[in-house]
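S.,

Sequence below, as promised.
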Amino acid sequence: MTIGQIASSQIYGTEAIQSGKIRSEKSMFENLLSEIKTEKYEGVGKNVSSSQIVEKGHINGDWNRGFAGTYTAESDKNSLPQGAAANSAFRPSDKKIDRTSKLYEKSLELESYFVKMLVSSMRKTVVKANGNSNYAQSMYEDMMYDEYTNALTKNAHFGIADQIYLELNV
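The prediction came back faster than expected:
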């Protein structure tokens, strides 16, 4: 067997793997289409509309999941403020927060925006090793930091969303 024959057999093997991946992805996409056509998605039939699938309040193609469904427990409907809102001297002691409400969800989105501005400012201070980055790299890094800010907002309990909710829910 010559070097050329070995190289060509490796190329054909790589092509076979890629072809298998493409067939697999195509079948998954066809299964998704058939599920949509069989009205699996609450009344969405053959004429699928993005307004019927996309969650209200988000634009079509918005990759960010938001905070809908973050709090679903019964105890979340009557909880005490956390973070900065719990330490506020102006907070009446009898105020409770309904974390399942739409107002609290929007308050979390606003808190997430504040945290994103904070994280973006911190990112600007970091010096990159190679000094250059392309458009795709910066776009995906930005998306990654968006996910970081969402996780921080959900788990760090800064209390900004609680303060916003308490101020607006009068």
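The chain has a mean pLDDT of 77.

Coffee later?
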